[in-house]
Sequence to fold (865 residues):
Amino acid sequence: MADPRPDLSTSTAGIRSPNPFWLASAPPANSGAQIQRAFEAGWGGAVWKTLGVPIQNVSGRFGGHAIRGVRGAGFNNIELITDRSLEVNLREIAETKRLFPHNPIIVSLMVETEEEWREIVGKSIDAGADGLELNFGCPHGMCERGMGSAVGQEPRINERITSWAVKYSTVPVLVKLTPNVSDIVPHGLAAKRGGAHGVSLINTIKSIISVDIDRFVPEPRVAGLSTNGGYCGSAVKPIALHMVAALAREKDFGLPISGIGGVSNWRDAVEFILLGASTVQVCTEVMLRGYGVVEDMVDGLEEYMRTHGFSTIDQMVGKAVGSFREWGDLDLNHETVARIDAGSCIGCQLCVAACHDGAHQCIHPQESTRVPRVDETECVGCNLCQIVCPVPGCITMEEVDNGFPPATWNQFLHEGRELRPKKGAH
Amino acid sequence: MQPRPPQSRSESAFDDYKLPLLRDAAVAEANRCLFCHDAPCIKACPTAIDIPQFIRKIATGNVRGSAATIFDANILGMGCARVCPVEVLCVGACVYNELEQPPIEIGKLQRYATDIAYDQGWRFGEAGPPTGKRVALVGSGPASLAAAHELRRLGHACTIFERRAVVGGLNSTGVAPYKMRADRAVAEAEWVLAIGGIEVRTGMEVGRDLTIRELEGGFDAVFVGSGLGADSRLGVAGEDLAGVHGAVAWIEAMKLGRVDVSSVRRAAVIGGGNTAIDAVREVLGLGVPHVEMIYRGTRERMSGYAHEWAAALSEGAHAEWEAVVTALEGDRCVERVRCVRVDAQRRPVAGSAFTVAADLVILAIGQSRLGELLGALDGIVVEGGLIRTDAAGFTGRPKWFAGGDCTNGGKEVVNAAAEGKRAARAIDAAISGKGHAHG
Fold:
C-alpha cells in the first residue's frame, strides 16, 4: 500500500495555512492582484506588504550580489513600506479573503502612536486579516523616522508597542524581528513579554550591496547617491538559521516561529522547520523567479516528508534543535580523516591546493597517478577537501576509533576527562 | 601594414563553425572551471598557457589580465583559440571528461579574451633594449612569428624573409576558413609585428632571391621556419587532367583567391589526414553536393582527428575506406577515380576494382619536404626531408636554428608557436653568450 500523502498544512501561532510557504511582507505581496495570483500558484499564505502612512519611494531600489556568476545570490533593497493608500489596501485585503478564504492573510503593520496602532489594527482585522505582523525590522528609511528596526533594537519599546497591538487585536500577533542586533534572544523575549503570539525572523540585514567602482558610489544609485539597504536572499540564510535556532532552543521563549531569510526552495524550508519554524516566508526568490517557484517547494517538501516518514509538519518542527549546542559540549575526542575514493577521483587536485594552502598540508600529489594521497596521521578532519571536491561522494570523512572515550571541553574543564593528542598542531 | 588578401575570395563563403561566446555565456562557462591544481589542461598545451588562471580572470571581468596570461605564453593565442584541435589538447585533458561532464570550452574562452584584446587594441610584450644582434627568419608562418616576437622581447633585431606576397604562412594559406579566414591571419601577423623592429621582406625566397651564404654572412643567427613544400603526387595515370589539384595548392587558391566549383557535382578527396578532412568540409561548404573521401586505410587508422571526421560526416561527407587509387580517368577533364580495395597489409584485393565518379579530385596525401636546401650545409642533418634539431631547435651548425613543420613534419599551429618561441630562447642564449653557446 502506498504511503498516505503527508499533510502539509501547518499553523504558526494559530494562523492556519494549507502549506508552510508564505509570501513575506515585501514587493511580491504588495497588492491584491499579486497575492491572488500567488494563491492560485500554490502559496499557502501571504504577509501583506506593511501598511502604515503611505510613503514615497525612490527610483533605484534594488541591488544584487553575484557570486561566481550567479546573479542575485544576495540581494538588497531600499524600498520602504507600502506607498498605496490604506483604503485601497484594506479593500483588496477584503476582496482577496473573499476569493481565497482558506489562505491566511497576515497584515504587516508599522505606525507610531498607540492611537495609530489601535486604529490600524482594528481596520486590518475588519478587512479580514487572519493575523498581524508587527514590522519592527525595516533597517532603512523607516528607522530614521523612529519605526522599523529602531523599535526592534530596543527591547523596552518593542515590548510596549507589541502590548498595544496585542491589546487591540482579536487575531494572532507576530512580531517581526530585526537581525541587526548582537543577540536575538532578548528581543524575542521582549516580544513575548509584550504578549506576542509568535515571532517572524529575520528581517533584512543592514547592508551596502556593492559599490559602482567606475562612478565611486554604492548601489543602488539614486541621483548619484546611495544609502544602506536591507540584505536578503540566499546568502543570508546561515544568519537567519542561527537566529531562528537561538530562539527555538531558548527555554524561556517557546513562541511559534515563522522563519524568514534566504528561503529559495523546499530544502531551505526543511532546514528552517527542523530548527524550529512552523512556517517560512519567501520574498527574494519570488522577486528573481516569480510565484511559480512554489510548485517545487510544495512538491519537494511533500517528497521529503514521504521519504523521511513525516506525516505532518508538526512532527518536523524543531527536530534539529536539540542537536544545536554550545561549542563546549562537542566531543573533542571524536576523530575523522578524509578518504579519497580513487575510483571516482577525476584528478583535479582541488583538495591538494585547498589542504596545502588553506588547511593542514596533509593531502599530497603522487608521482604515478593524479589521485592525491591523504596523510591520515596529519589529517585533522576539517572537511575542507570534501567541500571543494567537485565529485559527489569522492571524498568522505571517515570516523577513526582512537580508543578515547568522548570528552567535551566542559567535561575536560570540570571533570578532568582525558583528551586525545592533538593532530596537526605543530 | 602588410599586404591584404584580395577582397574577393572563395573562403569568404564560410562563417565560423564554432560561434563565439557572448559575455554572459563566457562568464558562466568560466565559472564552471574548477581551477585545478597542477592542471592537466596546461600540460596538454604545447605553449603551456596557464589556462585556469586566464579563465578565472574572465570570470571576474579581468579580461585584459586574461589576455595577458594567454599572450605571455603564446603570442599567437588569438589564432590558436580558433584553429587548435582543442578536443585532443586542453579540452581533451579537462578533468570534467573524467566526470563524464562537458569539459570546459577552453578554446572559446581563449577566443573571447583574445578577440576583446584585438578589438580594444591592447598589446602585450615590449621590445627589449637593443642588443645590436640581428636574426634572420625564413618564412613568416606561426613558428617564425612566435620566434621573432620572442627575439624582439629579448632585444634582437629581426628580418623575416617570406616567399609569398602575404604573411602568415599556413595560417593565411591553409587554415580551414570556418576556423579562421586569411584576413584574420594577416591581422594576427600584423598584431604580432606591431612589437616593432621586425623587418618583413615578402617575395623573397631563399635559394632564388637570396642565398644561404648571404643569410649566414649577414646575420648573427638564422631561424628556419619554412614549413613544407608542394603537394605530393600519387604517381598514377591521369594526374595531369584538368580538375585534379593538390590539396595545399587548392586550399591556398580558395583562401587567397577564387576557385570555381559551381559546375562540380561530385568531388573526391584522396587521403585520410586532417588536410584531407579540411578539403572535404571546404568542398562541401562551397556547395558541392557529393564529396567522397578515399583513404587507403580504415577509419580507425586515419591520421585525421575523429572529431573532425565526425563533423565532416554531419555535413554530409562520404568515404571509401581501404581503397587505393590506381588511375584518374577522363577526357581532358577528370571524370572518375579508379580504385582497388586493399587488405590490412594494403595489398590489392583481386577483383575489387571500382570507380568513383568525380569531376573534382583533390590530392591530400602529404607535402614534399624542403630540407634538402639546407642538407648541403655541414652540420645540418636532413632526415626524410625534415631538418633535425635538438629539443631547443638548434640544428648543430652554428647560427642555424629551425622549428615548425619543416622540423616536425606538419603538426599544429600551436606546436609551431611553441617551437618558434623555444628556438628564440636558444638563439638568445647563443648570440648573447648566455648558457651553452650555439653560435
